[in-house]
Amino acid sequence: MKKLGILALSVAMAVGFASAASADTLADVKKRGVVRCGVDGGLAGFSAPDDKGKMQGIDADVCYAVAAAVFGDASKVEFISLTAKERFTALSAGEIDMLSRNTTHTLRRDASLGVDFTYYNYIDGQGFLVKKAIGVKSALELSGATICIQSGTTTERNLAAYFRAKKMDYTPVSYDTSVQTREGFESGACDVLTSDKSQLAAIRSDLKDPESAMVLPETISKEPLGPVVRQGDDAWANIVRWSLFAMINADELGVTSKNVDEIAKTTEEFQIRLMLGLEGDTGKSLGLSKDWAMQIIKQVGSYGESYTRHLVPLGLAREGTLNALWTKGGILYAPPF
Amino acid sequence: MAKVFVPTPPSPPPNSSTPAIQWLKRNFFNSPFSIVMTLLSVYVIWSIVPFALNWAILDATWTGTDRTGCDANPDGACWAALRVRFWQVMLGRFYGANPEEIWRPLVIFALFVVIAYLLLSETLPGEYRLYLGGFALIVFPVLTYGLIHGGMFGLKVAATSQWGGFMLTLILAVGGIVLAFPLGIVLALGRRSSLPVVQWLSITFIEFWRANPLITILFMASNLLPLFLPSEIEVDKVARALVAITLFQSAYTAEAIRGGLASIPKGQFEAADSLGFKYHHTMGLIVLPQALKVSIPAIVNTFIALFKDTTLVGIVGLLDVFRMAQTVSRSTEWKGFDYETYIFSALIFFMCCYGMSRYSQSIERKLNREHKD
User: Fold this and answer.
1) What is the CB neighbour count within 10 angstroms for residue A296?
2) How far apart are CA A7 and CA B64, in angstroms?
3) Is A94 on the interface with B (CB under 8 A)?
4) Which one of A220, A307, B286, B319 has the largest count of C-beta atoms within 10 Å of its C-beta?
5) What is the pLDDT of residues A205-222, one digit of tens each?
6) Domain of B278: which CATH number?
């Protein structure tokens, strides 16, 4: 019975992908007049509406960037809130043009779901938050610890794998939501809390006394998060990928939404002139206008601006993390124009 | 010597205490067990109520446009968050972002309240109620979609993916309830039909939908249906949820009505037959009016259940009032104010469901009166 179900599902998926793959997404998007972008819609810093109802966050900014590149108008985005379960279905069924929903790139997803991962806009990883009082400086000293964890997530599996590999034991205390997990940690149900590091910083800043806890240096899993598109439309994948590259390159070249007009007037640097469309035409081969990257920088800003706007207020510093530029010790590296 | 009548002094009243104390004794202190329970209850109320009152009302932060006020006052609730986000939580993202368009759903809501009041209270004469019912069933849904979605007469388009909040909850619940009603009548009649094919089809349909949890049906409608359909055919997400809810609800409505049908004495059918009534006359003029009246309380019960069930659309990414409120406490601006948002949506649900249950009780009382006459 179960096998039959899997068969039916895979046939359905194959049909879905076959019909979706032939589409010319750019033409569809232009005809419709908006980019349909799948987001979480309820995750602070990544995508959540602000008081005015505008979607904010680094995931949302990628959507705005693609709209700016395609239409020259960053506001032409329709955000679709998706749950973790339905996000890939929505993408392969053509309900959305791109998925920017803190989605981890894994082999299984890449190879079997009919989707393409473009690049990463946040590199996350599971870590540990500990009470300073217990005097632990490394995850390797955690043997025998009681650990608060949100149940039903991959973090549970990663934690078990890590402790097994290091031949240490631990007692898990499971909670349903991240809020409960934080409260468990605060009330003393455990001395250690594990989650993705992007969440740990936020959880720590929500503690009554943030100074009483610290994040350990170890990262026990790799969670590269980035925008995803349907497989089979390479032209569209290029547009999404290069919209993100433009933001990262602008960051590296020191171009921001505030100084871009000034720089455009004076700069002699070849990469910047290429990026801003002052020399050559990088847009032509992408099927975009000449000033596509200029529009992204003007209306959305560089990656650094986006990070500062959305993640720094949550207590996620960028220096010294993987999300810093490659020139500053991180691994964020975009190809040249 | 004449006997002098000395009246015996009147015996004291059986209980010298005042009526209030008697009442207390009778209701709260009539046995050791009840004394213990009373004291325990008083203790629980004493330890919860002042705290809750302080937190929710007296110490709460009511004003302010950002979280500075709330952060400075950690011992009180932060209602400012919901004040700032009120329209977003009630009407969803589009209307939250376009305050100048809020009149559109508000007009529809006002119309809805007026229609519902006129139909449910018995102030209109029967004939007008019929016309109004027709208007509510045919014109009103079109008007609702036209005005809330926009796109014509120069109204800005509010794509259904941007609908949300209490508005979406109402649309799904009321839409599901109203659409399921005629379907439920047909199914109930079909289940009692003497034609075996019709009967078996109705039974299969009803049992299928009743045997599946709504969450499964929603998930199917949202995740599997699009995979089976070619990508050119796009069925709107809200429409899909509404269809799923309607089919689900119609099975329950059908069962409630079937209960009503079963309560009609056989003599009513036979009387109609002897007068030469055809099936649709028997049903339409004699049986259904009585059966529906009897089944109203049961139907309202299923409505209340459905109203609460609409929160399940959250799992297919539709932001009903509960999810919308949750979003507030997950935004950068108001992160962490979870209790406030949960309490707010609980209050909204309580008000709606309590209203419906009161209505059903008043109908029941009226029915009882009529039966006794």
Assistant:
1) 30
2) 56
3) yes
4) B319
5) 778 788 889 989 888 998
6) 1.10.3720.10
